Structures are given as structure tokens and as C-alpha cells.
Amino acid sequence: MKYQPQNTAPNQAEKQPVFSDKMMGNIRIKLKQLAEIEFLIHAEKKSPKKKK
Q1: What is the pTM for the complete model shown?
Q2: Is the pLDDT of residue 26 over 90?
Q3: Compositional bias (Polar residues) spans (predicted)?
């Protein structure tokens, strides 16, 4: 005979997402913006400087 675990709270917590769908969408947008900024900074550093 198998017994159910006494404390099921940790098992149930593992199944629930940490962030809501809306928050995950916001995080993805911010990460994309950060990647674009990093790309622009990297591209700016690589491009030859024009003297005025």
C-alpha cells in the first residue's frame, strides 16, 4: 500500500509558474529592448569614428 506524501505544498508550488503571463510578457519585452541596446552599443564601438 502506498501512502500520499504528508506535505503536498512543495509539490503544488513546483507546478505553478513563478510569474504571471503578463509579467513574463513584460520581461520578454525588456530583454528584447536590452538586447537591441547592447547591439547598438557594440555596433557603435565597432564603426570607425568620423572626425569633424
Answers
A1: 0.57
A2: yes
A3: 1-14
